[in-house]
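Onboarding guide, step 5: your first structure request.
Type a short instruction followed by the sequence, for example:

Predict the 3D structure of this protein.
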Amino acid sequence: MKLSRPVSWFLLAFGVWSWFVWTTFVRNLWKDSSGLAFDDAGDPTTYFWIHLLLAGTSIVLGTAIGVIGLRGLRALRGSRAEG
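The system replies with structure tokens like these:
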């Protein structure tokens, strides 16, 4: 299956966007001082672990989607050079 150029760019952009959004989220989660992510003793709360898992999963899926987009663009470039 070949992806079109716009779809490939969209998938690649989605992967980059995921990295940007979720790494920013993790940095903010780590620095949280509202009491949600860390209790009074400084230990991580359930909120912290659930959101860290959510961010990690989103980064992994965003990476996979971005790689699919990149491979689609490379395939289009290769087919253009052949034809």
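Each response can be followed by summary notes, for example: The two ends are 17 Å apart (CA to CA).
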